[in-house]
Amino acid sequence: MRARDKAAVSALRATLAALDNAEAMPVDEAALRGVALEQSPVGVGATEGVRTELSEHRVVEVVRAEAAERLEAAEQLTAPAHAERAARLRAEAAVLLRFLDGPGSPA
């Protein structure tokens, strides 16, 4: 596997996880604190809820945030010993930004 493919796989896995988290149903922690153990829901699917459906705009926001996070981290890695890690983070950010630019963007 080429190094470029590894950067793409890493970036896409992390971004899919971020999108999955963004779709998660918010938890009302105040309501959970007042529930006694014997009153808590039990059984298969008892705590399942409807996930939030993200708009296209929100998906783009999440992907941009993931790319920005990688670029910011790469900027902070200034020591020569971290040059390889910084380059990998920049490559991951480039993969994500290329998806936002559209299918006709140069590779």
Fold and architecture overview:
By secondary structure, this protein is mostly helical. It contains 4 helices and no strands. It has helices at residues 3-23, 29-33, 56-76, 83-101. Helix 1 crosses helix 4 and helix 3 packs antiparallel against helix 4 (83-101). The longest helix has 21 residues, at 3-23. The radius of gyration is 19 Å and the shape is elongated. The chain starts with a helix and ends in a 6-residue tail after the last helix.
Keywords:
107 residues; mainly alpha; 4 helices; 62% helix; 0% strand; elongated
Distance between the termini: 18 Å
Total number of helices: 4
Residues in helix, %: 55-70%
- Unreliable segments of 5+ consecutive residues: none
Sheet-strand content, in percent, reads under 5%
Output the helix-strand order. Answer: HHHH
- Average pLDDT, rounded to a whole number, is 82
Shape: elongated
Largest sheet: none
Provide the gyration radius in Å.
19 Å
Question: How would you summarize the topology of this molecule?
Answer:
Layout: H1 3-23, H2 29-33, H3 56-76, H4 83-101
Helix pairs in contact: 1-3, 1-4, 3-4
In short:
The chain is 62% helix and 0% strand.
